[in-house]
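Sample entry (584 residues):
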Amino acid sequence: MPDYKVSDYVVRYLASQGVTHVFELCGGMLAHLLDSFSRQRSVRLVSMHHEQGAGFAADGHARITGVPGVAMATSGPGATNLLTAIGSCYFDSTPAVFITGQVNRNEMKGTRAIRQLGFQETDIISMARPITKASLQVTDPGSVGSTLDLAFETALSGRPGPVLVDLPMDVQRTVVGLPDPARRAVRSHDSRRVAPAHVEAVLAALHEAERPLVLVGGGVRSGRAAEICRKALEHLGAPVVHSLMGLDVLGHENPLRVGMIGSYGNRWANQALGESEVLLVLGSRLDIRQTGTDTTGFARRTILHVDVDAGEINNRVMGTYPIVADVGDFCAAVLDAPPARRDWARWNRHLDELRARWPDTRELKGLPGLNPNIFLRALGKASRAAAAFVVDVGQHQMWSGQSLCFDGTQRFLTSGGMGSMGFALPAAVGAALGLGGRSVVVVAGDGGFQVNIQELQTVVRNRLPLKIVVMNNRSHGMVRQFQESYFESRFQSTVLGYDAPDFAKVAAAYGIASRRIETKELKDGAEQDRVVSEALAWLWEDPSVPALLEVGIPTMANAYPKLAFGRPITEMEPDSKPLDMEGT
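Predicted structure, serialized as tokens:
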């Protein structure tokens, strides 16, 4: 059994699991690990400018590659700065291993009735436990191998998620005999794990339905099941709606695709959901942003719910047919069964009529300036060279879900459950590195972009081909819209007390090519189209280099349609008014 310094073993172990990049911000309690990375160079260290950025980069890298993302931070403030990203991975089911440095074991307070013993000592294990699948501290140097085995196995098994591994500094520098690390086996999808009765029940329900729908959720992507899911959907032949997190499973050209459902879903897709009589749910939590508050009305149709997490089934929406299974295993089982489709031509024609009746680009009527839905539709069409779209949190996230179009090979990443502003830029760093340097589009709002704007330096230093679009409405638009609806348009802290810099000049200061367009003075639609077309052509002049385009959006532009809170899924603002103030 060879002798290893623990920090050297950690690097060797990560390389053995297929980890190619580790994201970090340096700190004293990481010194041994950083030195081990520098000497072995089997895994590339990517230095970020905030630990939250490192965590989001690990998230983006994991979503692209399927290998657990890895981020490191030092003890104390470094570790606590990771928590938002850890929570984002937990809620969005992203496999990740977060490694934190800790003070020496003899400097840990243990059971003493004091707040702190060692400098920057912080009980990150207790803090992270509610938002991780496991929080582990290595106090025995000889157990580092088994601890890392447990961390990677836990991160990837069942419903994926993050694991925290806390390494005291004196453990990192200890030399101990350890077996060489071995790569864990990659799990493949297997139809034999699904009871045949479940598949028979689904096929029978669909065959009997005149108005069926399949809802594709984020669990399809987190379960690494997009390809087999697409094959199963073609096999079933029923029309497909998707949640925000399932946006990229089917490309916009796919004839089965209907649109996005939910609080800010396409109006026609919500109408289709309301009219459906059978709903097959693949990897979606059916949370309030997808169903609204009227769960009784939502449950009036036959619902067959497939999810690897039993706790998510019959949680809010009751009375569903439960299928506790990995969604990839279920789709494999569907492919093994004979198709039980019927002729849904009439239903499909009706869905096409609904889409034609309520186009997403006409929801914002009389807007004095650039229509964000029209702009995002143009951005998607102009960005065929992009491998992924990484979208931040805010109104632009909803407009993107409604209107951003892409083909079946392009990825869509965003922060769903945590809904954290500042996600997109660092996550795009991780995604671009996971994609081998292929172009990635970032869509952010002016408010969210400022949260992690410092990572522009990471983009420059690593020469990453990010095409960054900042949609600047000079406000925190989603909360401003909330204030308009419920607080008599008192725009405290969203417009009043808020401002933003000239993002084009900021990008130029970092050495990134930049440009700004403002269309509020252009009354003619054709002239607006020309300005947008020229700007997007400029953005993509050289797909291999970073560039930033700032786009002026009217401050009072709202994200419509929006589910009227308290009403059924088919009743949406501005045509319907909410019954109560939304609480989420």
